Amino acid sequence: MSGAFVNPLARNGPSVISHARGIKSWTREMLKLPDEAVVSVSELACHVAGCPPKETMILVMQGVETIQASIHKALQDVTQDDIAQAFAAEAGPD
């Protein structure tokens, strides 16, 4: 047997997985999260009028606290700046 299994039905293949891992890593670094914090990244499609076609959701779960950030872009288009802005907006004004 040669190499790892690649799912031929996976949407855009390994690059999506790689970018999701990058988003998780950027989120951990930006928020200075401990190892036990869980970071989940999902891309959602919206079919409601006026809603962006793709949205990336980032959930950070620490103990009983969950923080959610929404970025109105496809997962593969999300940048570090997008993540910083999304969590700054979630935190609200100081």
Helical region count? 2
Give start-end ranges of low-pLDDT stretches: none
CATH C-level: Alpha Beta
Question: Which bin fits the share of residues in helices?
Answer: 25-40%
Q: What name does CATH use for the topology?
A: Double Stranded RNA Binding Domain
> What is the total tally of β strands?
3
Secondary-structure-derived class: alpha+beta
Which helices and strands, and how do they pair?
Elements lengths: L13 H18 L6 E8 L8 E9 L2 E7 L8 H12 L3
Antiparallel strand pairs: 1-2, 2-3
Task: From the structure above, extract its key features.
single chain; 94 residues; alpha+beta; Double Stranded RNA Binding Domain; 3 strands; 26% strand; globular; Nitrate reductase
3D architecture notes:
- By secondary structure, the protein is of the alpha+beta class.
- It has a single domain, classed as Double Stranded RNA Binding Domain (2-Layer Sandwich), CATH 3.30.160.
- The protein has two helices and three strands, in the order αβββα.
- The protein has a three-stranded antiparallel sheet.
- The termini are far apart.
- The model has no long low-confidence stretch (mean pLDDT 85).
- This is Nitrate reductase.
